[in-house]
Design brief:
The protein is mostly helical and about 220 residues long. Helices cover about 75% and strands about 0% of the residues.
Length: about 220
């Protein structure tokens, strides 16, 4: 009886050590393998997915193979020491794989939204700098008496090009304060965001300058 109890205790200790040592390795390897395979299957950016079918199959094979090289020993060793520990680890590995499979699309979507937000913020900062330069360029015609006398058309909204310019100035200023706000419609019916509005402002200013007789889009305008 004492020998049986001692054997059970020894098996319990060995199983506990195997669980502590191999459990995290098994769970992490299964989750990582499922994540990589799932990401490749979804064609996520940065997944290294090739357009060729043969290369794609090779990539998936090596992903599974490398993951198995870690996961299989992490499962077999505890199973040889204690079958019950191996059974528990098999269930934990399966649960980790299912969780990784379900969480991967949400994770990738979150990363895509974050990346898109960063790109939008960078584009907004660049557009603000360009917007400031365009406004300073136009204000010389409004505030400089010499320019106002030489090129009165640039401040007279009766001219179609100047009217379009003023509208473009208002649209760009409205979108400047909130890059994530509602888009403003373009004259052609499409929607535009702040960088598009600044691009439209640049084109409108160049058109108004040409209509006023200023060569080279205002680069030779008098001081």
């Amino acid at each position: 009886m004492a020998a049986v109890m001692e054997g059970l205790a020894q098996g319990f200790v060995q199983g506990a050590w195997a669980l502590l040592l191999c459990g995290p390795v098994l769970v992490a390897s299964v989750a990582a393998t499922v994540f990589v395979v799932r990401r490749r299957s979804l064609g996520a950016p940065g997944a290294g997915m090739s357009d060729g079918g043969g290369q794609r199959s090779d990539q998936l094979f090596w992903d599974v193979f490398l993951g198995s090289c870690v996961a299989v020993p992490a499962l077999l060793i505890p199973t040889l020491l204690s079958p019950w520990t191996g059974l528990f680890l098999a269930g934990a590995g399966a649960a980790a794989g299912i969780a990784a499979y379900r969480a991967t699309p949400k994770y990738l979507a979150g990363r895509a939204r974050h990346r898109s937000g960063l790109e939008r913020e960078a584009a907004h900062r660049t557009a603000r700098e360009r917007h400031d330069a365009l406004v300073a360029r136009w204000r010389q015609y409004e505030l400089d008496p010499a320019c106002s006398i030489d090129y009165p058309a640039l401040t007279d909204v009766r001219f179609p090009e100047t009217s379009t310019l003023i509208k473009a100035l208002r649209a760009a200023e409205q979108l400047r304060t909130d890059p994530g706000g509602p888009d403003i419609g373009r004259p052609d019916g499409r929607q535009q965001d702040y960088p598009d509005a600044v691009t439209h402002l640049a084109a409108s200013l160049a058109a108004a300058e040409r209509a006023a007789g200023i060569p080279a889009a205002g680069t030779q305008a008098p001081d």
